[in-house]
UniProtKB/TrEMBL annotation:
It holds the Pfam family DDE_Tnp_4. It comes from the Bacteria. This is DDE Tnp4 domain-containing protein. GO terms for molecular function: metal ion binding. Keywords: Metal-binding. Residues 9-84 form the DDE Tnp4 domain.
Length: 101
Protein backbone atom coordinates (compact mmCIF):
# COMPACT_ATOMS: atom_id res chain seq x y z
CA UNK A 1 0.00 0.00 0.00
CA UNK A 2 1.21 3.50 -0.78
CA UNK A 3 -0.10 6.30 1.37
CA UNK A 4 0.62 9.98 1.75
CA UNK A 5 1.56 11.17 5.25
CA UNK A 6 -1.60 13.28 5.50
CA UNK A 7 -3.87 10.18 5.75
CA UNK A 8 -4.39 9.78 2.03
CA UNK A 9 -4.36 6.26 0.61
CA UNK A 10 -2.79 6.50 -2.84
CA UNK A 11 -2.70 2.91 -4.05
CA UNK A 12 -3.14 -0.65 -2.83
CA UNK A 13 -2.23 -3.69 -4.87
CA UNK A 14 -4.56 -6.61 -5.35
CA UNK A 15 -3.66 -9.56 -3.15
CA UNK A 16 -1.11 -11.72 -4.97
CA UNK A 17 -1.66 -15.47 -4.99
CA UNK A 18 0.17 -17.54 -2.43
CA UNK A 19 3.02 -16.18 -0.36
CA UNK A 20 4.71 -13.24 -2.06
CA UNK A 21 7.44 -11.08 -0.54
CA UNK A 22 6.62 -7.36 -0.27
CA UNK A 23 9.49 -6.27 -2.51
CA UNK A 24 8.68 -8.93 -5.14
CA UNK A 25 5.05 -7.80 -5.21
CA UNK A 26 6.07 -4.15 -5.56
CA UNK A 27 8.41 -5.03 -8.43
CA UNK A 28 5.70 -7.13 -10.12
CA UNK A 29 3.33 -4.15 -10.10
CA UNK A 30 6.09 -1.78 -11.28
CA UNK A 31 5.84 0.44 -8.22
CA UNK A 32 9.55 0.33 -7.40
CA UNK A 33 10.64 1.35 -10.91
CA UNK A 34 7.92 3.99 -11.26
CA UNK A 35 8.85 5.67 -7.98
CA UNK A 36 12.58 5.49 -8.74
CA UNK A 37 12.17 6.92 -12.25
CA UNK A 38 10.01 9.75 -10.86
CA UNK A 39 12.75 10.41 -8.26
CA UNK A 40 10.27 9.95 -5.40
CA UNK A 41 11.75 9.03 -2.04
CA UNK A 42 9.79 6.50 -0.01
CA UNK A 43 10.04 5.22 3.54
CA UNK A 44 9.92 1.44 3.58
CA UNK A 45 10.26 -1.33 6.12
CA UNK A 46 13.17 -3.78 6.38
CA UNK A 47 11.43 -6.11 3.93
CA UNK A 48 12.48 -3.70 1.18
CA UNK A 49 16.22 -4.11 1.73
CA UNK A 50 17.69 -4.34 -1.76
CA UNK A 51 15.28 -1.83 -3.27
CA UNK A 52 16.71 1.15 -5.20
CA UNK A 53 18.26 4.06 -3.29
CA UNK A 54 14.97 6.00 -3.26
CA UNK A 55 13.54 3.49 -0.73
CA UNK A 56 14.84 4.38 2.70
CA UNK A 57 14.82 1.44 5.13
CA UNK A 58 15.76 1.27 8.82
CA UNK A 59 19.26 0.34 9.91
CA UNK A 60 19.81 -3.28 10.87
CA UNK A 61 21.81 -4.49 13.79
CA UNK A 62 22.85 -8.07 14.35
CA UNK A 63 24.09 -10.38 17.05
CA UNK A 64 27.59 -9.20 16.23
CA UNK A 65 27.02 -5.48 15.72
CA UNK A 66 24.81 -3.28 17.84
CA UNK A 67 23.29 -0.15 16.35
CA UNK A 68 25.05 3.10 17.15
CA UNK A 69 23.19 5.85 18.98
CA UNK A 70 22.85 7.78 15.71
CA UNK A 71 21.42 4.71 13.94
CA UNK A 72 18.93 4.11 16.77
CA UNK A 73 17.86 7.76 16.61
CA UNK A 74 17.43 7.54 12.83
CA UNK A 75 15.40 4.33 13.18
CA UNK A 76 13.08 5.95 15.74
CA UNK A 77 12.52 8.92 13.43
CA UNK A 78 11.91 6.55 10.52
CA UNK A 79 9.35 4.59 12.56
CA UNK A 80 7.51 7.76 13.59
CA UNK A 81 7.31 8.92 9.97
CA UNK A 82 6.10 5.50 8.80
CA UNK A 83 3.52 5.12 11.56
CA UNK A 84 0.29 3.77 10.15
CA UNK A 85 -2.51 6.28 10.28
CA UNK A 86 -5.87 4.79 11.32
CA UNK A 87 -7.71 6.75 8.61
CA UNK A 88 -5.53 5.24 5.89
CA UNK A 89 -6.26 1.78 7.27
CA UNK A 90 -9.98 2.55 7.42
CA UNK A 91 -10.07 3.56 3.76
CA UNK A 92 -8.01 0.56 2.68
CA UNK A 93 -10.31 -2.05 4.21
CA UNK A 94 -7.44 -3.45 6.28
CA UNK A 95 -8.13 -4.20 9.96
CA UNK A 96 -6.59 -1.69 12.35
CA UNK A 97 -3.57 -2.93 14.34
CA UNK A 98 -4.45 -3.88 17.92
CA UNK A 99 -2.61 -0.85 19.36
CA UNK A 100 -5.03 1.47 17.49
CA UNK A 101 -8.32 -0.05 18.60
Amino acid sequence: MLSYPATLSLWASPAPPGSTHDLAAARTHGTIDALASANITVLADKACLGAPDNAHVPYRGSRWRALSTAEKTADKAHARLRAIDPEVIATSGEPAPSHMT
